Amino acid sequence: MPCPDRGGGGGALLEARVVSVDEANNSSTDVIGWLRYQPDADAPCVELITLEFGDGKLHLQPNSTRAVDLRVYDDDALGAVYAGLIALEEWNVLTGNAGGGAALEAYMMDVVKGDGVARNALKAKLGAVQADNISVAGRTRDKSVSLATGSSQVGRYMLAVLVQDDPVYKAGGEVWSVYTKQAVVQDQNEPSIIIEEPTENTFPALTNGTFEIKGYALDNGGANAIAMAFIPSALGQGALEDVKNALKDGGNAPQGVNVKIWPTVSGNGIDWPIGGVVYKKYEFSFECDVFNDFKDCNGDLENEGKLFVLYAKDDSHDVFETFKLLAYKTPPVVVSSLSQIRQHESNKDLTISFTATSDVGIQECKLEDVTDLSGNPIFTTSDGSGTYSVVIPSSRFAGLHDENKTFRITAVDGLGNKAAPQYSLFISDIPMLEDITSDSADGTYKIGDTIRFTALFTESVSVTGTPKLRLYADASCSGTPFEAKYEQGGGSVSLTFAYTVKENDEAAKLFTAGAGVSPIDVNGGAITAASGESAVLDKGRALQSARSIAVDGVKPSVTVITTASRHYKEGETVNFIVSFSEKVLVSGSPLLMLNDITGGSGSYKADYYRPAAGNGQQFSYVVKSGDTSSSVNGAYFLPADMNLITDEAGNPLALGGAAANVTGAAVIDTTPPDPPVLYIADASGGGETLLAADGFYNAAKRLVIKSAESGVTMKYSLDGEVSWTPGAYVDLPAPTSGETVYQVTAKAIDLAGNESNLTDTRNITIRNNLSVLAVTSKTPDGNYSSGKTVTFTVSLSDAVGVDDQNKVSITVEGTKADDTSSLSTAVSLPSHSSRQSALSFDYVVPLQSSRAVMRDIRVTQIDMSGVTTATETRDRDPPLREAGASARGL
Question: What is the average per-residue pLDDT within 837-864?
Fold first, then answer.
């Protein structure tokens, strides 16, 4: 739709409410908040910079380089802009003479949201009218537009602006806006005629048969004469030049034709500035009488399309403007009591009432008996619109027995438009079936409901036997009927029939036979007048003409039960959508019993939740502790709950006891998996070993996480449970310097979302080179004599191999007791074949001549230059960690 002239802030606050209504029509309202409506938030907008005048039009000067200034903008970006001035005559052709109102609004909506035909036609027209129209592509959000006028471009125009936002931002399709404004390009040297009302190509509203053609003439000097003429349709455009000359000559109509010329008007005018130039505005108003002013060439009243010529004259120029109005062709509206009467008894008077109305008045009304060969009307009036009542005496029907009469009401309005509806009545001198109706309310009736029908007669009838009223499920009244049995009413004008709905009965609407076929089967009995003559049974009005009664004896049934195929854990809700054969209503709290669940409390019942799409209802089951099911495959309703689920007629559910299959695999698992097991491996994944304790490594490693349960997701943490990452392994790179310590733990999550307990936390230290972690002695403290062995163990940060046995050693040092001097000995690594991270060195206590005691034996130096690690890095100067023993030399 078009944006406001000045956009940007035209929003509104809307209160959002939810209104709930139950089956008893009780309602409650909940306010859920406020929403802001911003009409120009998505559609591009146009702002008119050029001022308009008090008549709602743009008034422009010819030959202007900036006749119209516009601003076009969008909240994200503009895609294209088309703008131009279209001559009003061309605009009317383009829009299908959409002068205004709903027709113009429909055209504008078609341009914006239609299939593009109207939009492309408008784009082409804009391109043809203005050479400087704009087509802008790109990401511009705000665009200034100026339109020029040519030197000869004088007259009435439509300013049209067509804007598209940037389609890059609209995944759902392009968005267009259209803006229009009537414009007048005013010549500085000659008068310009503007007609304000009525709208061209319409029929104007009347006041006592009259309307006014109103407007004004603009001139830069003095418009000293304004006149108007009507040209009969028979003359049309052919008389246009003669009429123009007659207007210039002072208003004398051409000889021999009924051209209507209104008296010339003039005045002083008021000042009207346009673009810095002060014009004079001369208003005019010509009153037209549709019953007297518009005559054809024979002098008779004409009701055809009307052609007007308006004339304005200043000191040096004569200007003419043609203007057209439509003819009034709407026939009168006739409403009569005859539309409700199908038959009439010949021994009774007939009262006929009717009205005839028209916007241009009623000239004549008459009532005729079409079957009367004399052709004389029964009633005639020329009083105009009103309500008339005519009584036709029974004598007019004397001797008629089972015959038809046709009446016609003719109404002619003030312009000669005519309506002549006809009505037929069946006339008889014996009782006739007049109407089939019902005392039961319109609606749908369920199994066990009794519906009562009434057969109305024109006079009292007697009944023998048990007649039946035939009711059908279709308008053709074919097939096997439902039969309503006669109950009572003999001796009166009203007979009552009753029908009780049985299971499997179904009819969206009940029908009875119309005229020509009796809806009543006398069933061996009779329906007669007091004279004993059989009543006429085939002329009455059918049940369906005034009543809408349906029967529904079909119980609803379950067609399918569906659920989502996924795993559920304790506390989660499993939703079941139960689809029924028809729309159902739920009262109370029915339960859906579920099969194939074990291990829990034993109460596997899904509670009713709410209606679902289509004919469905949703039931929900919350998984309880211990529940388990490889798939919930069956569900059913208990017989006690069947009456809580009914169709709209009230029939209860037909399913109970037997389980219906469930579509979808709902797997219920409330048991958490076992904790996973952690392994440490080489960076490539080889050499995998159980991570049973903290580990120190001199190379990149891979942490591997395994579980015995299939389908689980592993998650691990390297930062003491601060953050978790899914994965069955993680690579632990060696740092560029120093060491990195990982606090490793893991857990397993099964398909239902159950989580295992955490593994024990392990500290994994990765260093960037070979390091001595510890130097220990497994030989206990004590005194050791010569020849005894003290074993020292050097623990390394990674498993090593030996390249050169002679370059792997430790230096053991002690202090002599007698002179406190030091004694040191180099100890080499024994034979070493496999890769190990702990190397053992055996120090044999030497024989000392002085038999002095050497105290505090310790490792003071380690040489690892002969080893190779997995990453080929060597630590030739590791930090020493002391370990010691005491020995006495012998």
Answer: 77
Name residues whose C-beta falls within 8 Å of residue 390's C-beta, 6 or more positions apart in sequence: 351, 352, 353, 367, 378, 379
The angle subtended at Cα 9 by Cα 5 and Cα 14, nearest 5°, is 115
Which has the minimum average pLDDT: 102-106, 463-467, 529-533, 584-588? 102-106
149/744: higher pLDDT: 744
The pLDDT, as a whole number, for residue 15 is 64
Give percent of the chain above pLDDT 90: 41
Q: Centre a 10 Å sphere on the Cβ of residue 145 and count the other Cβ atoms it contains.
A: 20
User: Which tokens belong to 29?
Assistant: 């309202």
Query: Are the CB atoms for 878 and 771 separated by under 8 Å?
Result: yes
* Mean of pLDDT values over 832-841: 83
Residue 824 in contact with residue 859, Cβ under 8 Å? no
90-99, 673-682, 851-860: the lowest-pLDDT one = 851-860
Q: pLDDT tier at 798 (50, 70, 90 boundaries)?
A: confident
Burial class (CB in 10 A: 0-12, 13-18, 19+), 688: middle
Q: How many CA atoms lie within 13 A of 271 on its CB side?
A: 4
The DSSP symbol for 762 reads: E
Q: Could you tell me which residues come within 8 angstroms of residue 142 by beta carbon, excluding any fewer than 6 positions away?
A: 71, 72, 73, 78
CA distances to 191, 218, 312, 319 from 315, in Å:
10, 13, 10, 12
CB 343 within 8 A of CB 540: yes
In contact, 419 and 356? CB cutoff 8 Å: yes
Q: Is 119 exposed, middle or buried (0-12, 13-18, 19+ CB in 10 A)?
A: buried
Count the Cβ atoms, other than its own, within 10 Å of residue 824: 12
Q: Is the distance from CB of 407 to CB of 356 less than 8 angstroms?
A: no
Segments in 544-583 forming alpha helices (H)? none
Quote helix, strand, coil % in the chain, to nearest 5: 10, 45, 45
| Neighbour-count burial for 321-360, b at 16+ CB within 10 Å, e otherwise | bbbebebbeeebebebebeebbbbbbeeebebebbbbbeb
Distance CA 344, CA 351 (A): 10
Please tell me the distance from the alpha carbon of residue 524 to that of residue 844, in angstroms, as a whole number: 137
* AA letter at 492: S
What pTM did the predictor assign? Answer: 0.51
User: pLDDT tier at 213 (50, 70, 90 boundaries)?
Assistant: very high
**Mean pLDDT, residues 266-277:** 78
- Cβ neighbours of residue 366 under 8 Å, at least 6 residues apart? 377, 378, 379, 380, 381, 409, 410
